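Before the break, one more example. Copy the sequence into your notebook; we will annotate it together after we see the structure.
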Amino acid sequence: MAISESLQKMPLAGKVCCCFAALQALAVIGLETSILVIVLQKMENVFASWSSDKGVAIYFLLLVIASLFGLFLMVGGVMNGDTIQIIGFCLFNLFAMTLAIFRFYQVRTWIQADIFVGFEVYPMVKDIMVASIGVMAGMTAVFGILAYLLYIAFGWEIYKRVGADLKIRRMYVNYRTLVFLLKIDFFVFLGFAVSYIILVLKSSDPEFGITVAFVPVTLSVLVLAFWGLRRESVATMWTFIFLLCGSTAYFVYKCARMYDPKQEAKFLTQRPMMTYYTVISLVVISATLHQAVSCLANFGYGLKERIEITRGKRSDMEQIQDYYVNAAGDRRMNLEG
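Here is what the structure looks like once it is written out:
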């Protein structure tokens, strides 16, 4: 029932966004599947010819998961009236497109290195890879326009949730931004760990077990951070900030290790993509660290209480239909029909 009501009240731009996000996901999954099938059929030694193994499969996995994750972000943002998540989705879509561009150049180099079938296979997958990039680029532009329309449409809903108090609104924006960044952290950390394990490490490497353990630990830390943010737990947020600083050191170490002459053989093929992914991870961590400190500084100033007052039918600080909250934190009747 709640979902049905949300769909009925969803603005037209929101419905179009969700449909386009679903169409993009289907198109990207179809194109990526075609590339993988062609390569597997035409190049029997696909997993042996690449020095780090399984490169095509990893790119396929990353882009498919990115498409589905992007759909999750867009639908969640529209259903919850979360303009920050909708804008963040546009940036995430741009990031996924850059991954597709990296894939294009690396797969081209790898395929053409096979003197037996490389020049036969590359023309077959080239147009499909370009089409995948084109779909993401075109849809990112469309999503940017629709995000602006949704920003206007949802502006009044945000006012009804947190009122006219500029301080509360600023704290609310910080809160929503951190919630969004925690979701992005999960994708970035998981993507890096899986890529590093499959493309670079071997089961005999000492780092293998540590990197595998990194995945569930990261998930637990992000869930803990979200819980601490919702409960305004100072101790939990300080723990999260400390762990974020440790993650920064970890990624800096990984980036430096890629350029260590002793490790050159491991990273020679994958260095450009893994360096880019590491830099993106550091940017996301830095943004998360900044927002975590900002949200921690806002604890105890009334945002938690305001959220509890305005939490209505939707799951996370969503709009209420019967009243809005004024600058003093009091509930007032909503006079809209």
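The chain has a mean pLDDT of 79. The first strand starts at residue 323 and ends at 325. Try to locate both features in your own notes.
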